[in-house]
Write a structure and sequence with these properties.
Number of strands of chain A: 0
Strand order of the largest sheet of chain B: 1-2
Distance between the termini of chain B: 28 Å
Number of helices of chain A: 13
Number of helices of chain B: 12
Radius of gyration of chain A: 19 Å
Distance between the termini of chain A: 36 Å
Strand content of chain A: under 5%
Oligomer: heterodimer
Strand content of chain B: under 5%
Largest interface: A-B, 32 and 35 residues
Largest sheet of chain A: none
Structural class of chain A: mainly alpha
Number of strands of chain B: 2
Number of domains of chain B: 1
Helix content of chain A: over 70%
Chain lengths: 274, 262
């Protein structure tokens, strides 16, 4: 078991080095991302700030709290970008028959597929995310105790798994339909609106859809509520604001998504392309 | 005639993917809904902010999404692809003006997107959201003109950015950077009057607010007819300026064509 894990980590390391080299090859490409991502992230939060300057609080959320939530959302987005960017392009690989290559190698197909590109662009997300998160922490006087730090780490990992799971699930539809790229743009925008805006602004039915049907609420909204001591306003027999839900939900959905991916690969994949 | 044919072709391509057409409407509507909820929340305690009421603001936000669909500049990706794959050589030999051909394609795409996405969203909005008709029907022609001019400004900007392809071969995401900047500075996310005065004044000196904020402001009645006419004049100025820049850049770029692939 330990040997297998070590082997997988070794492969991941090589893949990361190759990723770095690819990234450096097109300097203008890198520069564009370096320019764009911080603009996008900072402007997103600036828009909220401009609005909140006019009205004070957003359904009880102060700007510091919103920044905390926003930063948390950007973290898992960035990590998803870093390690699971491939899950957004399943359609492409299905059409080009790219899984053929993975199928003949002695490693799990899903693992190979995920690490196929370690996408360094994700790091550019993490930096502005960290700045906004730090600002939020200062504003809300966040206590950096050991349990809080551990919970934050679990939440970020869980959030990343949730995001990867949703991209994998929607992307794997391509095994059946050959087309699933429509979902990518929608997912991106929906994640922005559910992980970076406090979901309290939405009506209850809307929050429920994006918590229980599609678990986006667990990426940052519920854990932020829990860590900051704000009520989510959603009535449910169990307290949803416990941050530990995020890693649990994340793991469950990730395994489900992996299962769905294999279902498509084994039942429907037909090595299209050449 | 050749351009008209290009335009028609683009319409047919789009309609081939019917699943995408419906998926597009549904997904746009969900995203618009999220925006509407945000504005509802913002207006929960206030009746009006800076002279704009809740209904007006929601109308602004929904129409902004409709506009975004119709501001489609495909030249960014087509030109980049044609240069990278080397098709540009053959395209330049054809007896049409290449920029004109790209333009025709984009107009086709815009027409089809307007009918297949913007209009359905608008109708859904009228049915289910507090979308308002324009304050004065007299402004509608002005809204239309400012939309067309706004499209020209954005298209020329895209064309200009695309020309970088000739120099760098790989455009990277210059186009996306441009889109991002437009999204923020044009008032498409939130109207610029929300910004601090100084920032707003500065932004009014760029071409961006004249793409989204002008037609939308006219529609909801935030910009009156006199002011609207003045701003349409500014639009015309930007169009001319960008047009000249594009023409010059195109002339230069054509000499830099490097053929790769074959």
């Amino acid at each position: 078991m330990l040997k297998a894990v070590k082997h997988y980590l070794e492969v991941l390391r090589y893949s990361a080095v190759i990723g770095l080299k690819c990234e450096m090859e097109y300097l203008s490409y890198t520069l564009c991302w370096l320019l764009m991502i911080p603009i996008q992230i900072f402007s997103g939060v600036y828009v909220l700030k401009v609005i909140m300057d006019r009205i004070g609080t957003l359904n009880g959320w102060s700007f510091g709290q919103v920044a905390f939530l926003y930063g948390l959302g950007v973290f898992s987005h960035g990590l998803q970008d870093l390690f699971f960017i491939q899950t957004r392009h399943i359609e492409y690989s299905v059409i080009r028959g790219e899984f053929d290559r993975f199928l003949v190698r002695p490693l799990g197909v899903f693992f190979q597929f995920c690490i196929g590109t370690v996408n360094l662009v994700g790091i550019y997300d993490l930096i502005p995310g960290a700045i906004i998160f730090a600002y939020g922490c200062v504003q809300v006087n966040f206590q950096w105790s050991i349990p809080n730090i551990l919970m934050l780490i679990m939440v970020v990992i869980g959030g990343t798994l949730i995001q990867a799971a949703i991209y994998t699930l929607t992307g794997s539809v391509a095994f059946w339909t050959k087309k699933s790229s429509v979902f990518v743009g929608v997912n991106l925008q929906l994640f922005d609106k559910t992980t970076q805006w406090p979901m309290s602004i939405y009506p209850n039915w809307f929050i429920r859809i994006f918590s229980f049907l599609i678990p986006m609420g667990f990426v940052s909204f519920y854990p932020a509520c829990g860590l900051l001591g704000i009520s989510s306003g959603v009535s449910f027999p169990l307290p949803l604001e416990i941050p530990l839900w995020t890693p649990l939900v994340g793991l469950a959905w990730f395994l489900l998504a992996r299962r769905f991916f294999y279902l498509g690969l084994e039942k429907k994949y037909e090595s299209a392309g050449s | 005639m050749a351009y008209l044919y290009k335009l028609k072709l683009q319409v047919q391509v789009y309609l081939t993917y019917r699943f995408e057409v419906f998926a597009n409407i549904a997904t746009h509507f969900i995203l618009i809904l999220a925006n509407v909820f945000l504005w509802n929340c913002v207006y929960s305690d206030q009746k009006d902010i800076l002279g704009v009421g809740r209904g007006q603001m929601i109308t602004y936000s929904v129409l902004s999404s409709c506009l975004a669909v119709m501001y489609h500049c495909g030249i960014q990706s087509s030109l980049n692809k044609d240069v990278r794959e080397g098709n540009i050589a053959l395209l330049l030999m054809k007896p049409i003006h290449l920029l004109g051909a790209y333009f025709a394609e984009d107009v086709g795409a815009v027409a089809v997107r307007a009918v297949s996405v913007s209009v359905p969203i608008f109708l859904l909005g009228l049915l289910f959201l507090p979308l308002q008709p324009p304050v004065l029907f007299r402004v509608l022609p002005l809204v239309m003109i400012s939309y067309v001019f706004g499209f020209m400004i954005l298209w020329l900007l895209s064309a200009l950015v695309s020309m970088f392809t000739f120099v760098t071969m790989e455009l990277g995401n210059m186009g996306v950077v441009k889109d991002m900047i437009v999204a923020i500075l044009s008032g498409s996310m939130i109207p610029l009057w929300f910004f601090p005065d100084r920032v707003e004044k500065m932004l009014m000196m760029t071409p961006f607010p004249y793409t989204y904020q002008l037609p939308l402001g006219l529609y909801i009645g935030k910009i009156d007819i006199g002011e609207g006419l003045r701003q349409i004049g500014i639009q015309a100025f930007w169009m001319l300026l960008l047009g000249v820049c594009v023409a010059l850049a195109w002339k230069k770029a054509k000499n830099k064509v490097l053929i790769q692939g074959g």
